[in-house]
Design a protein that fits this description.
This protein is an alpha/beta fold and 681 residues long. The protein folds into three domains: 20-138, Chitobiase/beta-hexosaminidase domain 2-like (Chitobiase, domain 2, 2-Layer Sandwich), CATH 3.30.379; 145-471, Glycosidases (TIM Barrel, Alpha-Beta Barrel); 510-554 and 592-670, Alpha-glucuronidase, C-terminal domain (Alpha-d-glucuronidase, C-terminal Domain, Alpha-Beta Complex). It is 35% helix and 13% strand. The strands form five sheets. An eight-stranded parallel β-barrel has the order 7-12-13-14-15-16-17-18. The chain has a six-stranded mixed β-sheet with strand order 2-1-3-5-4-6. Helix 16 packs across helix 17 and helix 21 (605-628) packs antiparallel against helix 22. Bound molecules: 4-O-methyl-beta-D-glucopyranuronic acid. 4-O-methyl-beta-D-glucopyranuronic acid binds at residues 150, 163-164, 205-206, 285, 289, 324, 368-369, 396.
Length: 681
């Protein structure tokens, strides 16, 4: 039997969007919980008790009066407010929320729904206890809402402990062992549950020697982490190395068709489930950037994924098989190879061949988490496959948590993109059964995410995965309310307005001062921070811009280029193919154009480059100025204010560096001066 849940509170760590004050509305009231003996119900009871103990309310005993009731619909003697709500099926995670006759009610079919309903009331705060509220049904749009950690146990000589991590070390491991005190992991699980996340993969998809052993002799560490996530409804997944049968099993092959290999995976997986009965499954990066995979044995990715799916199926697990497969050793002289084509070319022909419990996990764009990419055509090409889309909450290419860059507007565009045109399904509908995955931005930093404002990206990811239709600005407003608890007075209004002013448009600001018009990259090779226009131009990585004295951009048309536009269904295959119709923001992703080419906006490409780079750097300075005005007025914690101020100095410096390098580069290539005569070097 599980020990009773205690609500985790960690000293010296920022509470993110769950500060004690966020629980005031609930905690100051009388709350009745009618649930079962499950661990998740225990969590709901513990949360209610914790909030009430802190804010002077009370856990109501049956028969006592109450202001809020949280009830399982299956419960025998429902009070009238809850009984009246009974009706639609809510599913394993859904809930109903209503308020009638002075009582607020949450009704759920299962304990997870009750937990999500509890956090919905937390989000509403006082509003949950005002007036009347007609019954609203809430169900997650996507079955699995998952964060992938790129954490290593050891500190990798090049990538550090957390690959592409900008928030310190891992919250799971330190000095080669699991953290002794895992309260922080529990607190993380709680934060995630409050956004709706229900799955976490704990280790890097580049599975090095030490981390490979999490599957076998270090499995107890995964079990210990699962025990922290479980009380908040989150299942743990593990990244595994495709060659494990060789490295860990003593076999000489990892061929998915070899019976000994299949038997090894079956046995190993059985042991995993013996230790972690609710284990989620495996995540695999195969035949990608040096990771082993099925190609070595003349097999394809369906063969590889299905082998693991078969090992997991008897236990109800899934394999997330990543579609990020491309040749990272291409010859830059070879114009016929286009990295953007790779995932589709490898995976689209395999549609229909994947098992039901194999999920193909596709990065949102065809290249690699750039600030602006078209949506990956793989998502439209595999109707008979469960697909998950992968986003990057960690800001590898979007400012590395030194720049303010609120990414929800971009994610919302991706999720709302309609491959088959207006009136046809959006991406969010295509991935219903596969889910949404993102690389986490969390580390052992005091603020969890390095940049305190980068917490908003983590929060927004969970909220969008639950409901892709939410408005990113409204999500941000919710996050501000929970995190900073601004009052209804002038100060509170000012704080809210300042954060919106800094963050609402910050993704577009970042886009303006970095690589122009969807061409991508132009970052320093290796660490990927800051500008280096030609850094990747003559490398094997397949990320080129092809700028010369006459023009810039990648010709991906069917007519004269790599043919990538042909991977889209209509209307987009035509829209992207057409120089006249291609949206400005993606022009250089699809076309190579002369500098004098006139955009829909009416300016030439070269003038657009100058204008946006001057504007972007200016906007970065405005963001800093907004924050500076809050200094010393007591609206935000001084330590948090100082951390953000320092980072904003770096953002402004970096934005100016981007502006000057990009502008100088294109001025020198093209010889075309800025129409407005501003300083270019
Ligand atoms: O964006 C790239 C990163 C790699 C990462 C890879 C991937 C985990 O630069 O660090 O490796 O993508 O997604 O597999």
């Amino acid at each position: 039997k599980e020990p009773p849940v205690t609500v985790p509170h960690v000293d010296d760590v920022h509470p993110a969007w769950l500060p004690p004050e966020a629980f005031r509305a609930i905690g100051a009231r009388r709350v009745l919980v009618l649930a079962d003996g499950s661990p998740l119900s225990g969590t709901v009871r513990a949360e209610v008790a914790d909030a009430c103990a802190r804010h002077g309310g009370a856990v109501a005993a049956p028969g006592e009066p109450y202001d809020l009731v949280l009830a399982l619909a299956s419960g025998g003697s429902l009070p009238p407010e809850a009984a009246a709500l009974k009706g639609p099926e809510l599913g394993p995670e859904g809930f109903l929320l209503a308020r009638t006759g002075g009582v607020s009610a949450v009704l759920a079919d299962a304990p997870a729904g009750l937990l999500y309903g509890f956090f919905a009331v937390v989000r509403l705060g006082e509003a949950a206890f005002e007036g009347e509220r007609p019954a609203e049904t809430h169900r997650p749009a996507l079955e699995r809402r998952m964060l992938d950690h790129w954490d290593n146990i050891d500190v990798h000589p090049v990538m550090g402990q957390v690959e592409r991590g900008y928030s310190g070390g891992s919250i799971f491991w330190r000095d080669g062992v699991l953290h002794e005190d895992l309260t922080r992991v529990r607190a993380y699980a709680r934060l995630l549950a409050a956004t709706g996340v229900n799955a976490v993969a704990v280790n890097n998809v580049n599975v090095h020697a030490t981390e490979a052993r999490l599957l076998t002799d270090r499995l107890d560490e995964v079990a210990a982490l699962a025990a922290e996530f479980r009380p908040y409804g989150i299942r743990v997944h593990l990244s595994v190395n495709f060659a494990s049968p060789i490295a860990l099993g003593g076999l000489e092959t990892a061929d998915p068709a070899d019976e000994r290999v299949r038997a090894w995976w079956a046995r190993t997986t059985e042991r995993v489930y013996a230790a972690i009965p609710d284990f989620g499954g495996y995540v695999v990066k195969a035949d990608s950037e040096g990771q082993p995979g099925p190609f070595a044995y003349g097999r394809d990715h369906a063969d590889g994924a299905n082998m693991l799916a078969d090992a997991l199926a008897p236990h109800g697990g899934v394999v997330h098989w990543r579609a990020f497969v491309y040749n990272h050793r291409q010859d830059w002289r070879d114009r016929s190879t286009d990295r953007a084509r790779a995932a589709y070319d490898h995976f689209a022909p395999l549609d229909g061949r994947f098992r039901d419990n194999a999920i193909v996990q596709v990065k949102y764009g065809p290249i690699d988490f750039q600030t602006r990419e078209p949506v990956s055509p793989v998502i439209a090409a595999m109707p008979d496959t469960r697909l998950a889309v992968e986003l990057q909450v960690t800001q590898e290419y979007t400012g590395q948590q030194r720049h303010v860059c609120y990414l929800a507007p971009m994610w919302s565009e991706v999720l709302g993109f309609r491959f088959w045109g207006e009136g046809e399904p959006a991406v969010a509908e295509v991935i219903k059964s596969g889910g949404l995955v993102a690389v986490s931005n969390v580390g052992d930093d005091r603020y969890w995410t390095g940049h305190p404002l980068a917490q908003a990206n983590l929060y927004a990811f969970g909220r969008l995965a639950w409901d892709p239709g939410l408005d990113p600005v409204a999500i941000l407003d919710e996050w501000i309310g929970l995190t900073f608890v601004p009052g209804d007075d002038e100060g509170g209004e000012r704080l809210r307005a300042t954060l919106h002013g800094m963050m609402d448009g910050s993704w577009r600001t970042y886009e303006r001062y970095t690589a122009p018009l969807g061409v991508g990259f132009m970052v320093r090779p290796g660490h990927h921070y800051g500008p280096d226009v030609d850094g990747y131009e003559y490398t094997p990585w397949g990320t080129y811009h092809f700028a010369d004295r006459d023009g810039v951009g990648v010709d991906r048309t069917r007519a004269t280029g790599t043919g990538y536009t042909g991977q889209y269904p209509k209307p987009w295959s035509e829209v992207y193919e057409s120089l006249a119709e291609c949206p400005d923001e993606l022009l250089l992703f699809f076309h190579h154009v002369p500098y004098g080419h006139v955009l829909h906006s009416g300016v030439t490409v070269i003038q657009h480059i100058y204008d946006t780079h001057f504007a972007g750097a200016e906007e970065a300075a405005e963001i800093r100025a907004l924050w500076a005005k809050l200094e010393g007025d007591g609206l935000v914690d001084p330590a948090l204010h100082a951390r953000v101020r320092e980072l904003l100095d770096e953002q402004v410096r970096s934005a100016e560096e981007w502006r000057d390098q990009i502008n100088s580069y294109f001025y020198r290539k093209s010889g075309v001066p800025d129409a407005r005569g501003r300083t270019i070097y």
